[in-house]
Design a protein that fits this description.
elongated
Length: 183
């Protein structure tokens, strides 16, 4: 098995990436509900709108949206871990490098995925009056606010993911070195 990050295997780095993605996802989880509250859109509206294109409505749409959002966070984290293994210059050896790399990743995800998905799926779902709880017009009137808030949340996600990844890589690398030194 190929060793990266000193004594860490590719699979360990990928696992750390997945967990890091989930840490980032949970870091923004409550903020998403606060945005719903601030827009008077009804709790879970963001996640509901994510679940609606699947043909699900009500509470199951909220749960599906939450699950899909966390799976996406894990997938982004996994990709982050894989990419950090592609070249020596992409490896995350310090907290600062993790935060910078994570921030860049959050911005890429926002511009490459969030904006197109919002434009193609979420905004049309909000325009359907029975798709959201509360006033769809108020939500749509605040699209700029929602997008700028989402940009901030993607940066926060990236900071949490990248910072956690760096800490976990350092911890696991030290642990592996101690195991090999005692053997």
């Amino acid at each position: 098995m190929t060793k990266l990050y000193s004594d860490l295997s590719f699979s360990m780095t990928v696992k750390i990436g997945i967990v890091s993605g989930l840490v980032g996802g949970f870091a923004i989880f409550l903020s998403i509900f606060m945005i719903d509250f601030g827009l008077n859109a009804g709790q879970g509206t963001f996640y509901k709108v994510v679940g609606l294109p699947l043909g699900i409505s009500g509470t199951p749409a909220i749960l599906a949206g939450m699950i899909l959002h966390m799976l996406t966070a894990a997938l982004v984290g996994m990709t982050f871990g894989v990419c950090s293994c592609l070249h020596r210059k992409l490896r995350i050896f310090s907290f600062g490098r993790g935060v910078i790399s994570g921030t860049i990743t959050g911005l890429v995800v926002f511009f490459a995925f969030f904006i197109p998905i919002s434009s193609i799926l979420m905004i049309p779902a909000i325009q359907s009056s029975d798709a959201v709880v509360g006033d769809p017009g108020k939500v749509l009137a605040n699209t700029y606010l929602i997008m700028s808030g989402a940009l901030e949340l993607h940066v926060v996600y990236g900071i949490a993911m990248g910072g956690f990844f760096a800490i976990a890589i350092q911890h696991e690398s030290k642990k592996q070195k101690m195991l090999h030194a005692s053997a």
